[in-house]
Every structure is written in structure tokens, then in C-alpha cells.
Design a protein that fits this description.
The protein is an alpha+beta fold. Helix content is 34%, strand content 29%.
């Protein structure tokens, strides 16, 4: 019981710093790049490219040309949500010069799956996946520019999907069961006392008489 109460307290404590969202609200997002063994600063992502709470959507996120990037090495990207509360792993989203000239190379899609409970973001998982065929039509221009070394900004497709996680309130459940048990016990005692009222009254009367007799003997 103590362990369950402690876990419940920790869950509430950790949740106090997290924002509570309504469906469709933007989740603050930032991006950071890595190339040539160096990393850029965090850059805020515009609202139209951010995920919306509990809404599945796909966006073409622009990546301006980083200072010092000459295209001879792949460019990796990481995303963070709600400050740095949720962060993705590093993902190679732009090819190096050798890859870009390879006819077999195709861009990838960043697939971000987010879970939520009661208005809060619970977890974020991201990985690279092949781009669905339909996207090559709906985002034809952005994807055709990926292999063009002189064209900036590049656009990386990011697909946000959501699922709801239903959590069981263990502490609340235990309190409910305890309260129900106490209520049932009181009801049972009430029924038992009501059914045996005369017997109980006689027992109390007899005990009182015995006590009186004992006191008379002592006197």
C-alpha cells in the first residue's frame, strides 16, 4: 500500500510540470542539427510544422542551410517537444554528396508517434521510414529538391501520429475499495444488530445485573 501511494505521488509530482492540452493545440517543438561532428543550437519550429495534440498530421518541415554545411556529409536531426521533456534520437535526414548522386537513394520520412493521457503528452518515439508512394505526389516539389545540392531550404517530411493510453488510478481504486468495504461492514453490523436486538438487549441487561451484584458483595 505504501509503495502504491508513493508511485501515485511521484506520478502526480512529475505531471505538475507538464502542460495540459486540448485536442488540436500545438505542442512546442524544437530541432537541432548535427554534421561534421558539430551540433547546432536548438531552433524553435514554426507552429504550422509542430504536432497538434491528439491529431494525426503530416508536415514538410523546412531545414535552412546550416552555417558551415557544404554537403559532403550527411545531416542528422533531432527533435524535442515541450522544451526538452521529450527528445528523439539522432536521425540522418539529408544525404552526403556521395549518397545524393546515387540514383538508388530516396529520402526518408520521420515517423513520430506520441501517446497521451488526460491532456498530457506521455511519450514520444521517432524513427525513419520509407515514404509512402502517395506522398511523392502530394509533396512532389519538396521531395524533388532533396537531391539538389544548391537548393535550400530542404524539406523533411514528418508524420505525427497519436494514441491514447488509459491509466488506472491505483491509489484511487484502493481508496474506493476500502471505502466500499467499510460501508459494507457497517451495513452488515446494522443488519446483525437489528435482527438480534432483543438478544443483545437481554445480554446487556444480564451483564449489568451481574456487575450490580458484584458491587453489592464488595460492599
Amino acid at each position: 500500500m505504501r509503495l502504491q501511494a508513493l508511485l501515485a505521488f511521484l506520478a502526480v509530482f512529475l505531471e505538475t510540470g507538464a502542460a495540459e492540452y486540448s485536442p488540436g493545440e500545438f505542442i512546442p517543438t524544437a530541432r537541432k542539427g548535427q554534421f561534421h561532428g558539430t551540433r547546432t543550437q536548438w531552433h524553435d519550429v514554426l507552429g504550422r510544422h509542430c504536432p497538434r495534440f491528439a491529431v494525426d498530421r503530416t508536415v514538410a518541415m523546412p531545414i535552412p542551410r546550416p552555417v558551415g554545411f557544404i554537403g559532403d556529409e550527411e545531416y542528422k536531426l533531432t527533435l524535442s517537444f515541450e522544451g526538452e521533456r521529450h527528445m528523439t534520437e539522432w536521425m540522418a535526414v539529408l544525404p552526403g554528396e556521395m549518397q545524393a548522386t546515387d540514383p538508388s537513394w530516396t529520402p526518408s520520412l520521420i515517423d513520430v508517434h506520441m501517446t497521451h493521457t488526460a491532456g498530457h503528452v506521455r511519450s514520444v518515439r521517432a524513427n525513419l521510414k520509407p515514404i509512402p508512394a502517395a506522398y511523392f505526389q502530394s509533396h512532389k516539389e519538396e521531395l524533388s529538391q532533396m537531391g539538389n545540392a544548391s537548393h535550400w531550404p530542404k524539406h523533411v517530411l514528418v508524420r505525427y501520429t497519436w494514441s491514447e493510453v488509459v491509466e488506472v488510478n491505483t491509489l484511487g481504486g484502493m481508496n474506493f475499495l476500502l471505502g466500499t468495504g467499510v460501508t459494507m461492514m457497517g451495513l452488515i453490523l446494522y443488519i446483525v444488530v437489528g435482527a438480534n436486538h432483543e438478544k443483545i438487549a437481554k445480554l446487556v441487561h444480564d451483564l449489568a445485573e451481574e456487575d450490580a451484584k458484584e458491587e453489592e458483595k464488595d460492599d
